[in-house]
Amino acid sequence: MTLLSPPVQQHSGLPLSETMVDHHGRSINYLRLSITDRCNLRCLYCRSSCTGLKMLPHEQMLSYEECLELIAVASELNISKVRFTGGEPFIRRNFLHFLEQVLQRHPHLDMRLTTNATLLSGKISALKEIGVQGLNISLDTLNREKFQRITGRDFFPQVRGAIDQCLDQGLRVKINVVALKGINDDELPAFVRFAEQFPLDLRFIEFMPVGEQTVWRPEQLWTATEILRDAGEIVHLDPVVGLEKRRGPARMFTIRNGQGRIGVISPLSSHFCGQCNRLRITPDGRLRTCLFSDKEYRLRPILRSPKLGREHLRRVIIRAGKVKPMGHEILAAQGRDRSVCRKIMSAIGG
Asked: Residue 53 phi/psi, 5° resolution?
């Protein structure tokens, strides 16, 4: 008995291929799909401040079959890249088999994963065989004791070992570092040398005030400008230009005579909303067109309705995509002394 049912062939009555373009002229071709809100870490900037946090009941989370249906519709809308996130996606049972099913049905899909890598060891070969293009790994410190303080768990050896396995087996790695002034800014030289030594992308992401109970404070904002200025005093950085620069929100820099690259993602100090090309779907099937907006479109009832089919689902996604907002306008309206959305990151999809 297989885990997943065979694909259902449906014709929606709409053109089989339709590119989504919002009212700002942005083409939408990237979907971030969170498959679970569960995580085995308690990072201080995400969950540690949340009291009485309740996980989604199993029946409220999208099934793998429903995720496959969403991906099929996204493919019809010329979504070419899908990133699976959590929580921590490897917590969910049969995740590798699900990935295999995705690429069997959509062999040309650019499929990526974001993980904390605590459960990654021993799975690298399987990921490569399935066809995963690369991994984003969250790692906010290179110090084991500080890792435990930040995440609430002593899993640094597992994460560091998994990164080494990825590099040894030729799987592309991007390291995501939440930039926390007063917490990990003293490690900038170590991070720079790490990127200089290994063939990976190391990207600093400005700490964002996400979630009603966020611990974010203005004095904790370690800006991209500060990071680049100080990193440039350690190594010589050359900006990446051209097509490669357009592939994401990060501003990337090569390290002269080094193996890896340094990047910064600056949602607060220097927004990149004009190039945003993504949609997000939460574990319970809510479509969010902007991380900073609490406006959501409920897709799960459509997926589970015996009367509503793929055409209805496509129309809702297209309609939502057309009114995708500019996140920096939401930030400006709300101010920087409060959270920019109610849900915590693990409930949205990191």
From this structure: -70, 125
Contact 171, 232 (CB under 8 A): no
The rounded distance, in Å, linking the Cα atoms of 155 and 200 is 21
The three-point CA angle 218-288-302 to 5° equals 155
Q: Determine what percent of the chain falls in helix, strand and coil, rounding each to the nearest 5.
A: 35, 20, 45
With CA atoms as reference, report the closest residue to 88 among 159, 150, 46, 35.
Answer: 35
82 SS3 class: strand
Among the listed residues 127, 137, 124, the one whose alpha carbon sits nearest the alpha carbon of residue 98: 127
Instruction: Please give the average pLDDT of every successive group of 10 residues along the chain, which has 350 residues.
Output: 43 57 92 95 71 81 97 96 95 97 95 96 95 93 96 97 96 95 95 98 86 61 93 96 66 96 84 84 94 89 94 95 77 56 62
Residue 244 has φ and ψ, to the nearest 5°, of -60, -35
Q: Are 34 and 280 in contact (CB under 8 A)?
A: yes
CA distance 305 to 121: 39
The DSSP line for 104-162 is HH-TT-EEEEEE-STT-TT-HHHHHHHT--EEEEE---S-HHHHHHHHSS--HHHHHHH
Whole-number Å distance between alpha carbons of 345 and 303: 24
Distance, in Å, from the CA atom of 78 to the CA atom of 85, rounded to the nearest integer, reads 20
Domain range summary for the chain, segments of one domain joined by +: 20-348
Cis previous bond, 248, omega within 30: no
20-348 folds as: TIM Barrel (3.20.20)
For position 7, what pLDDT does the model report? 46
pLDDT at residue 174, as a whole number: 97
Tokens of 284: 């319970």
- Quick one: DSSP state of residue 274? G
Give the three-class secondary structure for 94: coil
182: Cβ–Cβ under 8 A, 6 or more apart, which residues?
A: 219, 220
The residues pairing with 50 across neighbouring beta strands, listed in sequence order, are none
Largest CA distance in the chain: 62
Task: Quote the pTM value.
Answer: 0.87
Q: Tell me the pairing of strands 278-281 and 286-288.
A: antiparallel
